[in-house]
Each structure stands twice: as C-alpha cells, then as structure tokens.
Write the structure tokens for this entry.
Amino acid sequence: LLTPTSAFTADPPRPYIELPFPRDTRYEVTCGYSCYQHRGSMSYSVDFRVPEGDPIVAAAAGEVMAVTWEVGLPANLDLGDALIIYIDHGNNWFTRYVHLQGITVEVGDRVEMGDVIGYSGKTGTRGAHLHFELKYGTSLHSPSVPINELFDGNPPVEDQAYLSNNRTLTQRPATPFTTEEPSTV
C-alpha cells in the first residue's frame, strides 16, 4: 500500500534508454565509470571511441533542454571548450552528450529515440570520442547514475565494444554549426 508520504519520496521511474548510436553500430568503451576525470557528478559517465563525424542519436525521446560550451577536462590542459547537448526525458531525468563537432537540434526541439542530434567530435578534448551520461536532478550538473542496462546489466568494460539497439536512424535537417568556440564577452 502506497502512503502519501512514500509517493512523494520515491524517485520517478527511469526513462528507457539505448546507446546513443544508430542501430546495429558498435563502439568501444574507452573510459568507464570513475576512470581518470570521471569523478564527482560524472562518476557514472562512459566514453566511447567514436570517429569524428559519426552520427550521435538520441538515447530516448525527449526535448532538447540545453546546448552549451563548457570547459574541457582536465581543465589544466587548456583543451578549449566542449560542445554539449542535454536532452530532458521528463521527471528530472536527462542525458548528456559531450565533445560534439556539430549539432542538428536546437533548444526546445522534440526528438525521438534514434533521431540524429549531432556528430562525434573532439571539442574540449585531444581525441574524437563521445562522453555520455544519464543524469537525475534539476541542475545541468546533477549527478550521473549507473546505466548498466546498456551493458548487459553490468558496469561497462573498457576496450569492449557494445552493439546499439537504438531505433532506426532518423535523419534531421542539419543545422548550420561551427566547430569554433563562441567568443567570450
């Protein structure tokens, strides 16, 4: 029996997500949970070796909540800023896609699982890859949560390739983009 108090303290159900790559593609994990800079709010981040320019797709349906440029990590290497997309999946659940070279969405766009949202790149880092997270909270910097369901129920294994079961690739009209960081004021 659900009491009124317990109804308000339980976390809302997680969104159903898939790997953020087109169906039947396979990419290798280069950095799993808590490796080098995956600390603090990024503890459950996963990096995938994705060649520059390969499509990145929405891991679940939602609305683009933010497109940002943020300091690349580690900050002491002065790697410039990373191009990042955040997609809201409802009930304070959202995904984060980092190091993109270009995007095909704008804030407020509705996306379906499998829609192309951008392209892999190396903004804010030395080599092309995708940094991916599922987050829960009300801030863009809310903590990431484990996504073991994407890795056969286990934490991701570095140097292992994982097959995407994401929906069929849906092409979105390309939005003009630049790989140049925005000028600071």
